[in-house]
């Protein structure tokens, strides 16, 4: 067995041991899972270095489903794309494992938590290593389940399980499309294996499908476009794109480590990973590409506008995640797959950093999440402040931090991709400014200014001790991630990550090594970022009434942003309430009323008709004898007459 | 010699008397007696036909009927007595517990 | 193939029945309940182990009936005592024998009056159910089919809930009415098919199209009630709600499968033309069943009703898969039958665990049990996830194969059926939210975590749920030859009508 198997296997073993024997760990769950996770991380680094030089690896583990002509095996495939994603995922996961030791200390579900994040890591690694669509789907849903079970970690709080249900169901709606896409792929190509699909792709590129044949429709659609769009529905759900996004901000009800791991760095990027993995299919359909690009662009800007007015520290970061995911999806939509993955990786590091930093803040505030009840924390939490600052600068795209390189690559590719590309570039720049603004709004409100909390006022009522720096197990991951946020962008640019990735794409995308944009474009995006930061500084670094007055001035816009564009209310009104109402109506009126009514009606008919016949039975023997005698006479006379 | 039809007529008349008695009388004892009359109507028939057909079998059957009738009367009277103990009456209208 | 020189299938059928008869003297004895329970456990476990010899001795490479036995039973009508199994009945028999010990374990606390009678009913029921799957003579099949009703009738009617009489009579009359049509079909087949009741030789005949249609409809009525398919499903929630836990488990896991088994064993191979002719009709009912069951489940306040309606939805997938006439659909349907048996059986066992403690099945009476019953909650979560079709657990594979088959046959059908998967997530998560999550409020009852009998009933199912999710091939490999043969029978008799839509 090659060591590649161990990369997913070690977290799985960690899950099995802590998951099965959790009652015996009693708060020592990290003893098993953390070392295994570190080992898996080291192995994935080795896998990365091997793919740098060698060819991609392909290992068949076992046959999973064989039915008729349908064969699916569980396999491991490590090519360049997988290898580089593996490094990011295992790095973040290892750091989150370590961070959790400090953050979840004293939590009653400590060991359970470790079991599930190990399970999540296993599923995520398998998702990345899958070599066919069904295997991808299996682990796609598995990471969704881990997300569900981790969001519901504090199950006693109603918002937790409501958010968890929402996350699962919205993902299921996405997966509905994804599954149909898989079915259609199988029907068209006769296989679910990536490489076989790509081989057969040219033969089917002009196939068309009549979607409405069951209803005698005649319109034909390009089958590749339909496949690409159906699969994209899955990505929309998983990567929180419009309109299936509301679960992501709500998912912040879960503990912060999983917000960093699952809802920022890894799971939510699975949608982008899937699009990049299947890029030949997307390349073959211009319609699907533009749908992808527009979805991403709209998500980026809508999420950014929502983030402007949120007060919950985690929700702000969550909306920024959604916005950045939109960026990546947009990048895929304009064909800049390499740039998308590059941004995915740098984003994974700095967004995990921001979340873990936010977690550190929340931890020291004993559970407070409203940024306007914090303030002045830079004095007490120097490391957290410094690392959060690095993360925010990276997110805002200020050189030389990681976000600058990847974001700029996306923007320049957008700019170069034709006339619509200019629109995407403008949306990207606008989003960049908004991003810089709300990110530094958070930083300034939380860390600068005066203290807006009083001792003993904290929610989760430990002894109301003052804000304090977090322990080393929590700050070490922050420092490590800051280092990555500082260097990953430069390294990726320097070592030509896009060229590296293009080796694993069957359709080589970039003909030449893409350069960063021209200096003027570069300057614009940096200046825009700086403007955003300055704006935030003037409005929020010092006490000011301007924000309130602006909120008052633009009441409509403010309420639109504050209420998240009313998506939740809309869904509630259009889908949730009618479904429940209809279910009850159909149950009461049709199922119990009509169907059961007929059944009981038949029974009742028998009963009433029998009741009337029953009168004949008087209990008087003489009556019976009379009837018998009459019958006898009757029969005898009939007998005589007929003869 | 008396023709067969007379015997048949007699037995039919007896049978009808018995039948009507069974159907209309309300006293259980009388009903039982009427049943006996019907049995004896059958006996008359048996004997008459036996004579005219020159077969002895039917006469043997008559003895059977008489024996069975005796047994039946014994049981019937027993039932009537226990019914009387139960209900304090021998009126057949009181015995309608077969009705649901 | 014999077991201690006794024919194995006969042994499997009559061992539990004889065991039940030997329990009769215990009815008069006082304080014998524990003994009786252990004897019943022993009988069912021996039965399970004996059924495993079918696996060892069976040859998965042939579609012929194996372990065949044939004796003349009633000469004047040419009725035989014929037994035999193929891959399809094999997996169903093993599932049945596997579930029976669990039914006894789950009754350990819940059943405390007339324990001996209960165990006898369960054992006789087991024999009859295995008889249904093993019978290869139509009259013998019918005898077992009807014999099965009697112990079930008693189990619901004697040990059931407050409204048990209504439920049990509804169950009994409903299925009996269906069975009448079955008898009608059997007798007419006897005259049409050359004066024999042998199922294999009846399959080999060619019947006129009109006769096929009539016989198919008659069989359909019998089996659709049992499955249950859409408009014939209303007996199921009532029966489940009133039945004791063991009754619900047997009902959901085994008896519902009889209908689907009937379609596979009789309707398809004997009346292929009619089967193709009625495909659209069955598709429509199956799709309505999938969506309808799921929506009804959403509206329920009673846990057992919720799971009962979810059964309607899941069995919709089974009937859909059977009638798509391709390998994925039929194998997926059979897999789904097993999966539904295991998962839904386990869910009813879970409800039983709660009911034994609280005597309530209302969702509103629970909440936050994860706090007090963490191990049990974990089990319930896993089984619920299996029920909603999470990949990696068993149900996903069956549902996926059925969807694949349906999608290949007709894309629109596949799409509509896939909606059922979204709805499944809705109602199962609703159940979990109401029961497992939330704040725990102490009530008049105590909620200790699982005892060892409950462990014994749930742990094996947990293992199977995971195992079948990871290794469905273990089961599928037993089906391939039988299913291929079945599809051959369908397509050889009637050139398969092209049902594919969209291509």
List the helices and strands and how they pair.
The complex is a heterotrimer of chains A (643), B (100) and C (503).
Chain A lengths: L5 H15 L1 H4 L4 H24 L3 E11 L2 E9 L1 H24 L6 H20 L3 H19 L6 H32 L4 H11 L3 E3 L9 E3 H16 L8 H4 L5 H10 L4 H8 L1 H5 L2 H22 L5 H21 L3 H28 L17 H15 L5 H15 L2 H29 L24 H23 L2 H6 L16 H23 L4 H8 L1 H8 L4 H48 L6 H22 L1
Antiparallel strand pairs in A: 1-2, 3-4
Chain B lengths: L3 H21 L3 H26 L3 H31 L13
Chain C lengths: L1 E2 L2 E2 H16 L9 H25 L8 E9 L4 E7 L1 H24 L4 H20 L3 H10 L1 H11 L4 H29 L6 H5 L5 H18 L8 H8 L2 H26 L1 H6 L1 H20 L4 H20 L4 H32 L10 H4 L1 H14 L6 H16 L1 H25 L16 H19 L2 H21 L10
Antiparallel strand pairs in C: 1-2, 3-4
Helix pairs in contact in C: 1-2, 1-4, 2-3, 2-4, 3-4, 3-11, 3-15, 3-20, 3-21, 4-5, 4-6, 5-7, 6-7, 7-9, 7-10, 9-11, 10-14, 11-14, 11-15, 11-21, 13-14, 13-19, 14-15, 14-18, 14-19, 15-17, 15-18, 15-20, 15-21, 17-19, 18-19, 18-20
What can you tell me about this protein's structure?
The complex is a heterotrimer of chains A (643), B (100) and C (503). Chain A is mainly alpha-helical. Chain A folds into three domains: 225 residues, no CATH class; 271 residues, no CATH class; 53 residues, no CATH class. Helix content of chain A is 72%, strand content 4%. Chain A contains 26 helices and four strands. Chain A has a two-stranded antiparallel sheet. In chain A, α4 runs antiparallel to α11, α17 packs antiparallel against α19 and α18 runs antiparallel to α19. By secondary structure, chain B is mainly α. Chain B has one domain: Helix Hairpins (Orthogonal Bundle). Chain B is 78% helix and 0% strand. The longest helix of chain B has 31 residues. Chain B is elongated, with a radius of gyration of 17 Å. The N and C termini of chain B lie far apart (55 Å). Chain C has 503 residues and is mostly helical. Helices cover 73% and strands 4% of the residues of chain C. In chain C, β1 and β2 form a beta hairpin. In chain C, α3 runs antiparallel to α20, α7 packs across α10 and α18 packs across α20. Chain C is globular. The chains are: A mainly alpha (643), B mainly alpha (100), C mainly alpha (503). At the A-C interface, β1, α6, α7 and α25 of A face α7, α13, α15, α18 and α19 of C.
